[in-house]
Write a structure and sequence with these properties.
Layout: H1 5-16, H2 26-38, E1 42-45, E2 59-63, E3 72-77, E4 90-92, E5 95-97, H3 106-124, E6 132-137, H4 145-149, E7 159-163, E8 171-176, E9 178-187, H5 203-212, E10 217-220, E11 223-232, E12 242-251, H6 254-274, E13 279-287, E14 290-291, H7 297-308, E15 314-317, H8 323-329, E16 334-337, E17 350-352, H9 353-369
Parallel strand pairs: 3-6, 3-7, 7-16, 8-15
Antiparallel strand pairs: 1-2, 2-6, 4-5, 5-17, 8-14, 8-16, 9-12, 9-13, 10-11, 11-12
Helix pairs in contact: 1-3, 3-9, 5-6, 7-9
Bound molecules: zinc ion.
Residues 77, 107-108, 140, 164 line the site of zinc ion.
Amino acid sequence: MQINQERLVNEFLALVQIDSFAGEEREIADYLIKQLQQLGLEVTEDDAGKTINGNAGNVIARMPGDPGKPTIMFCAHMDRVAPGKGIKPIIENGIIKSDGTTILAADDAAGIAAILEAIRVVKAAEIPHGSIEVVFTIAEEGGLFGAKALDRSQLKADFAYFLDSNDAVGTIINQAPSHQNLDITFYGKAAHAGVSPEKGINAIKIAAEAIAQMNLGRIDHETTANVGLIKGGTATNIVPELCTANCEIRSLDPDKLKTQVDQMIAAAQNAAAKYGTKVDIHLEDSYPAFKIPESDPVIQLAVKAAEAIGITPQIKGTGGGSDASILNGKNLPSVVLGLNYQDVHSTNESIAIADLVRAAELVVSIIEHA
Ligand SMILES: [Zn+2]
């Protein structure tokens, strides 16, 4: 396979040196639009940026191909976490890292670079292929907002690969939990804590009793729950009128998720009822669960493609959400592929050039074997 390692590494280095944050992807989006157009792809940009007051949308590119083959989508995200401005990449013994003052942004510039290199190889070597869609999303970090705003009806893909995981190249992530945020507001009644405490109802005490009755932590092998933030009261001499608790619940199983959410809401309502007060419940779907069977074409193709280039594929689940969770929720079968970047979201982040090359090879192989 004709991966051009120098071209691939140079592309990666160029990408990480373009500043890009969620909502501020204009510069990198313009750069990618130009690259994709130079490769002869038809490129559009949607208006996903609007949803977060951002300055760029998702970049969507198409390469038409054999209509007898499935249409495959490759996806990576353009934004990155802080500290990610002014990245100065360094290469040492085949490993690319930052100068230690910033992240490297291999998450997810490695995914973008691997996809671009694969398309360059497919074009240059005239490898027969089906139609290909490339999607570079905005604002993945902290909310998956670009994927959420993607219009599924505008995508032609039969299935999709998201290059965005620290697992080894050859890892195929086929399941992830759903995630719900549960915000509970407990109401009490304010009163002077020293003069007339009997006139008050302590919202913090109600919250404490409710939380004590909640099942939390690892509920079972598929389900977790957490109260992560609690806030209430205004001063020590006032019986607190309000207390809020911010919780999250994750499960691979939608029924277990609902059971767990219901248990926590019931605990809140029972505690409030005991004091004759009320609670406000705000439940929000962060992302839905997915579980793709190994017999599904999206996995079968990745397995075949990996084996064809001497990589042993590993199919596994993850405990976190990603753009793939959102697209699976929109009925586009999607798996996440490993890039083997290390120590992401830290100034120690790094990626081996060999892994970058392997990832690009895998994308070419997927296109070749479709
Ligand atoms: Zn990422």
